[in-house]
Amino acid sequence: MGLFKRNPFGHILFLKKWLIRIMGGLTHRRYRGFNELKIEGSEIFKDLPDNGVLFVSNHQTYFADVVAMFHVFNASLSGRTDSIKNVGYLWQPKMNLYYVAAKETMQAGLLARVLAYAGAITVERTWREKGKEVNRQVKMSDITNISRALEDGWVITFPQGTTKPFKPIRKGTAHIIRQYKPIVIPIVIDGFRRSFDKKGVVIKKKGILQSMVIKPPLDIDYENDSIDDIVEKLEYAIEQHSSFLKVIPQEVLEAEEELNKKRKWEY
To answer: What is the pTM of this model?
Structure first.
């Protein structure tokens, strides 16, 4: 790798590699130390192609979810199945790993900008900005950037576009799936909301069992499935369909609602 070799987004790969190494080293104990991360299904990574893979997941914090995925993906590619033991796997991280994030989030402070350089594809939300409801068209440049990332490597996206559970899947993700036909890998996470603050920066509580379940590729008929069909498949795959509400104890839902109320004054 040349010292100043760049990826398709102009990021210097040498700098990006060191950012991943440093940030990975600083955050490792958040998932194996202060808290424990239980992983299932990570053996699937070694059989995936080097590009054209879209990971879809539910979302619980701004940053802690995707940082955990960087750990799990790289650990698995280094031969550690369902384990992030020994952070040495970050010495040669996967350099063509990207994640979709809101532009306003990734411009909010130095830490966010550093994390953005490590692999963010920033997009403008079409429905919300600075805490207010908006209604605007999708920027074609955002779609183009996601397609460029898929051509180059793997992309992580959170199709609900929010950390609140059981919110609707945004149809933009379904359009991208139908148009670019990536392999779609669902991921279901839990425990991050209890472990960290909303931003995923401050450890709120220790001793929490976090979990990450990586599922087999989603069965999608790219030619015949409608956008609504794909949206529904995504809802079930990441366990955010309304039917899953029926299996969650009422006291858990009430506790979650109370927690959301307390967060309003914090952010």
So the answer is: 0.87
